[in-house]
Amino acid sequence: MKTDALIDSLARDAGPVRPLRSPLRRIWGWLAIALAFASAMVWAIGPRPDLAERVLEARFLLEQGAALATAITAAMAALALTMPDAARFWRWLPVVPAVAWLGTLGLGCLRDWAQMGPAGLRLTPDPECFVYIALIGSLPMLALVLMLRRGAPLRPSWTLALAALAAAALGNFALRLFHMQDAALMVLVWQVGAVALIAAIAALCGRAVLRWPGVPA
Q1: Does the pTM exceed 0.85?
Q2: Quick check: 162 and 202 in contact, CB under 8 A?
Q3: I want to staple 69 with a disulfide (CB 3.0 to 4.6 A). Which of 34, 38, 97, 122 is the partner?
């Protein structure tokens, strides 16, 4: 569709609309849904027995804080990208917390190596991580997609990838509250790897899921 025809079509069919609120305001509604669902899932599955001890450890708090910050900034970035005048920096907003998340796990790998030698970097299959992260992130992802479709997702691949990153990172945050696997390499490969895979799959589906009416796929 040519630009002039698109403009004419939008002008002819347009009705009264309510302006979208800023991402900083819209994020609170998503967070309420996402954290409530994640909390319910942790309660249903059962918190890990050593959770009270783990929340007193700086390493655990740093890893969890970075994961949650990644989820929040990715959701904000996705919401911002549904606004046509969104600046480019929004798509890179989750980079800092994501790098901090990877950095804390990388330091954890070195610490495990120093304390336990090669045994500290032993890698064993843990496929249930992907299942739990996808399950816990399902409702937050659905809620975020519905919010995104109210805007103008002109960059659908980026937008859906960021939405999936937000939902999956939140799923990983909740997973650590009941899953007993704490070896840094295992977390890095199976949990963060699952988050990255989900975001990559979402990027491939972006145009199909977030196609904006009037814009060709």
Answers
A1: yes
A2: no
A3: 97
